[in-house]
Specification:
The complex is a heterodimer.
Chain A: E1 4-7, E2 10-13, E3 19-25, E4 31-38, E5 42-49, E6 56-57, E7 65-67, E8 73-78, E9 87-94, E10 107-108, E11 112-116
Parallel strand pairs in A: 2-11
Antiparallel strand pairs in A: 1-3, 3-8, 4-5, 4-9, 5-6, 7-8, 9-10, 9-11
Chain B: E1 3-5, E2 10-14, E3 19-21, E4 24-26, E5 32-38, E6 44-50, E7 56-58, E8 64-68, E9 73-78, E10 87-94, E11 102-104, E12 108-113
Parallel strand pairs in B: 2-12
Antiparallel strand pairs in B: 1-4, 3-9, 5-6, 5-10, 7-8, 8-9, 10-11, 10-12
Classes of the chains: A mainly beta, B mainly beta.
């Protein structure tokens, strides 16, 4: 099925460990986003990309890095995990240039639940 | 910078009753506005969106929302709530720049009494 796939779905890290979350989309979308969701705070934008090879900071970028080496993949890295990064992470993508105008048709992945102990 | 406020953290309604979820936004120009719904353990699904034109927009699952520029609001409504509507609802404003990023409110959790 076409859509946004996030791996892994669950992960437990120890403080100081590193990991990479993978987001893959097969809809030829140009734009991709990483959000974190915490209780009572909604979704906050971490980083985003407006095309292959581009990245930009969102609202809460500290402690995270991203890469968009291929159009279909957007990786979120934690170099040294901290308990404050315990959260649910969502990836989203939007905008297929071949289908016309931008309509903010975000497609979300099902999320990655990360716990840092 | 844009921002979104959802003043109600929780709302409980009886099945069959009407629903209104509040959303206020801050943005320097006419915003793009959205409502998303999230069921437990799931990702977000778009309910409806407003870009321009008619200020009353219809969405999926019988939801509608009205854009009121004078009040900087975009409240979500449904005339008769079903038990399956129990979920968390997020209002979002979209940036009218090259990022096309969405900024979300903190969400309102809807509980439905049988």
């Amino acid at each position: 099925n076409a859509g946004v796939t996030q791996t892994p779905k669950f992960r437990v890290l120890k403080t100081g460990q590193s990991m990479t979350l993978l987001c893959a989309q097969d809809m030829n979308h140009e734009y991709m986003y990483w959000y974190r969701q915490d209780p009572g705070m909604g979704l906050r934008l971490i980083h985003y990309s407006v095309g292959e090879g581009t990245t930009a900071k969102g609202e809460v970028p500290d402690g995270y890095n991203v890469s968009r080496l291929k159009k279909q993949n957007f990786l979120l890295g934690l170099e040294s995990a901290a308990p404050s990064q315990t959260s649910v992470y969502f990836c989203a993508s939007s905008y297929n240039p071949s289908t016309g105008g931008l309509d903010y048709g975000y497609t979300f992945g099902s999320g990655t639940r990360l716990t840092v102990v | 910078a844009q921002s979104v406020t959802q003043p109600d953290i929780h709302i409980t309604v009886s099945e069959g009753a009407s629903l209104e979820l509040r959303c206020n936004y801050s943005y320097g120009a006419t915003p793009y506005l959205f409502w998303y719904v999230q069921s437990p353990g799931q990702g977000l699904q778009l309910l409806l969106k407003y870009f321009s034109g008619d200020t009353l927009v219809q969405g999926i699952k019988g939801f509608e929302a009205e854009f009121k520029r004078s009040q900087s609001s975009f409240n979500l409504r449904k005339p008769s709530v079903h038990w399956s509507d129990a979920a968390e609802y997020f209002c979002a404003v979209g940036a009218r720049d090259s990022s096309y990023k969405l900024i979300f409110g903190s969400g309102t959790r809807l509980l439905v009494r049988p």
